[in-house]
Amino acid sequence: MKYQGKDLATFPRQIQFVLKNYERHNLKISDFDNIIICGLGGSGIAGRFIKTSTFLNFPVPIEVVSGYEVPAYAGPRTLAIQCSYSGNTEETLSMYAASKQKGAKMLCIATGGKLEELANQDNIQFYRAEKGYQPRMALGYPLTYLFLIFDELTGTNNGAELENAARILSNEKEYIDQATELLEQVKPHFPKKFVVITDYAGSATGLRFCQQLQENTKIEAFLVELPESNHNVIESYYGKLDSIYFFINTHSNPRTDLRFTFIRDLLEGSGDVIFDIDFDAKNLTEMLQKVYVLDWLTLLLADHAGKVSSDIRNINALKNYLSER
Fold it and tell me: How far apart are CA 262 and CA 39, in angstroms?
């Protein structure tokens, strides 16, 4: 926590900033046949939270695109939401151009950069985040903007729950204490690669945890989603494996619960250790609490491993490499 704890502690304040500064877009879901959320890393993960949270009740398809192109079906009845913390992510700028070419309606979320310039030039509504963070430490901005954008589209209201969540999360010591308790349990098995097994509703939380482990703790972490992985990955579970397992289960489907039970028996029978993270997928506050605890855990693990969580030299080297070509 010595490197990015102060930034992570502002997560609830980021939520409050958006709740205070959100401006209506005056769009209706009936105007669209599909929605694509264009973003990568700390910006893209916000879209995945929206997709999994609304999966069972949203009336049109939602796709999160993390590349250079947008789907062939994108067109004038597509809402394309461009998310880039810096506003300069090359893939997002490419998707902006592709969305514009296809005539999609767009909204933009960023701190500024080229994305803001393009939005102003094309008269596209721009939602501003505050500067000063590495993108993964600024999750509160795109996540809250997206929930409010989707609320307005359908007439739902997550604002009150987000306000309540920000208030509850503001007691960061409670979540650091929970993460510290987890740290002490994980320490005897560290360092090993992390395998995070989730159901669909918990997959965004699991992916966020993997990304934070990779970028903060500098360790390999892999997401395995049930039930799909029972048709393939399960065949790698023979004997004790060199992995730390986290089960993230929202108990959204009793048949998937049975699959978790079977995998638990299989892994524990070989001497593998499993850590459980359970939450109700319908409870937004509870989901954000789990995300917050796991974020803190990755910073504590980084300190334990002697890693500098804010050092992203490989990412910066890649950006330099690409900029020269």
Answer: 35
pLDDT value of residue 235: 97
User: What is the rounded average pLDDT of the residues 104-132?
Assistant: 98
Of 2.40.160.60, 3.40.50.10050, 3.90.180.10, 3.40.50.10490, the CATH number of 172-304 is 3.40.50.10490
In eight-state DSSP terms, residue 128 is E
- Inter-residue contact 200 to 55 (CB < 8 Å): yes
Q: Looking at residues 62-71, what average pLDDT do you find? A: 98
Report pLDDT digits (tens) over 9-58: 999 999 999 999 999 999 999 999 999 999 999 999 999 999 999 999 99
pLDDT over 90 (residue 3): no
Q: Which residues contact 252 (CB under 8 A, 6 or more apart)?
A: 199, 200, 201, 281
Q: Are 22 and 74 in contact (CB under 8 A)?
A: no
Q: Choose among 22, 136, 43: nearest CA to 88.
A: 43
Distance CA 211, CA 114 (A): 25
Helix, strand or coil, per DSSP, at residue 93: helix
Helices and strands: H and E segment counts in the chain: 12, 9
Q: Is 77 in a helix, a strand, or coil?
A: coil
Q: If DSSP codes are grouped into helix, strand and coil, which group holds residue 2?
A: coil
Distances (CA, A) of 282 to 7, 51, 52, 57: 27, 13, 10, 11
**The model's pTM:** 0.97
Tell me the per-residue pLDDT of 208-228, one tens digit each, with 9 for 90 and over.
999 999 999 999 999 999 999
HSE-up of residue 294 (Cα within 13 Å, Cβ side): 27
C-alpha to C-alpha distance for 32 and 36, rounded to whole angstroms: 11
* Shared fold status for 5-165 and 172-304: yes
